[in-house]
Amino acid sequence: MYLSAANHRIPLSDGNSIPIIGLGTYSEPKLLWATKHDPEMVRPTLEKTLSVLQLDYVDLYIIEIPMAFKPGDEIYPKDENGKWLYHKSNLCATWEGLEACKDAGLVKSLGVSNFNRRQLELILNKPGLKHKPVSNQVECHPYFTQPKLLKFCQQRDIVIIAYSPLGTSRNPTWVNISSPPLLKDELLNALGKKYKKTAAQIVLRFNIQRGVVVIPKSFNPERIKENFQIFDFSLTEEEMKDIEALNKNVRFVEMLMWCDHPEYPFHDEY
C-alpha cells in the first residue's frame, strides 16, 4: 500500500480507516478508563467526553486497560492504607456497553488497549458479538517488537497501534528505567546517517512498514513536523530484519503497581 504525507490512512476491519501516524498531542482522551468499566457507565462516560470535545461522535473509542478499578470518579482509587481498590472485571459486559455506543452513532470504531491474546479472544469469542475490536493499542518499538501479538492481531484484522513508539519518558513511577534509551541505539543512528534522518524517524518508519500505527507524543511543533517526514524513504528488507533483531523483549511501561490485579495483562507471554 502506497503511503505518503498527504495520504497515510490505512483501512480498519469495520470499513473505516485510521492515519498510520497520529500527532500524539495531548487532548481529552477518547479512552474508557478502568473506573468506568461497569456497562451502565460506558455511555454516560463517552457522552461526557463528547461534550468536553464539543463533538457528536468520536472516530475511535477504546478500553484503555483490561483491569477494572472501583467504579466512580476517582481515577486511581485506593483505601486508607494506600492499597489499590480493584473491581471484578467483566470485559464482555464492558464491550457490550461500547457496542451500544457504536449502535447509537456516538462512535465510528471500537478498540482496546493493553489487551493480551487471551483478553482479545474473550471479546472475539463473545456470544452475540456485534462489533469486533478494530485495534489494540500497546507498547511497540524496536526494543519491544511484539512479534507474536502483532501476528495474532494481523491474522484477525486487528490493527496494532503503538504507544511509546520512540521509547518513553524516563519517569521511574511508570517506567522501567533500567532499559537503555532507545534513541541512543547505534544501529538506529547509523541508519539515520545513511538516510539523513533522525533515529526517531528511523524507528517510526520501521513500525509503519510493518503496518503498525504510531502515535508519538510531542508538544514541540518542530518535532511534530519531523515525525511526519517519514514517507520519503524506505528501509530495505535487510535493514528491517536488523532492526527486528534489536528486540530485547523488555517493556518500558510495565504497570507493575497493578501486577496483582487478576486481569493484569503482562503475566502472559503475549
Description:
With 270 residues, the chain is α/β, with parallel strands linked by helices. Helix content is 30%, strand content 12%. It contains eight helices and eight strands. A six-stranded parallel sheet has the order 3-4-5-6-7-8. A hairpin with a 5-residue loop joins strand 1 (9-11) and strand 2 (17-19). Helix 1 crosses helix 2 and helix 5 (186-195) crosses helix 6 (199-209). The protein is globular and about 55 Å long. The model is unreliable at 24-29 (pLDDT under 50).
SSE pattern: EEEHEHEHEHEHHEHH
Rg, alpha carbons: 19 Å
Looking at the structure, what is the overall shape? globular
Spatial sequence of strands, sheet with the most strands: 3-4-5-6-7-8
List how many beta strands DSSP finds: 8
**Strand composition percent:** 5-15%
List keywords for this structure.
single chain, 270 residues, alpha/beta, two-stranded antiparallel ribbon, 30% helix, globular
Fold topology:
Layout lengths: L8 E3 L5 E3 L11 E2 L6 H15 L4 E6 L27 H13 L3 E7 L3 H8 L10 E5 L7 H9 L3 E5 L22 H10 L3 H11 L3 E2 L6 H8 L8 H8 L26
Parallel strand pairs: 3-4, 4-5, 5-6, 6-7, 7-8
Antiparallel strand pairs: 1-2
Helix pairs in contact: 1-2, 5-6
Describe the structure concisely.
This protein has 270 residues and is an alpha/beta fold. The protein is 30% helix and 12% strand.
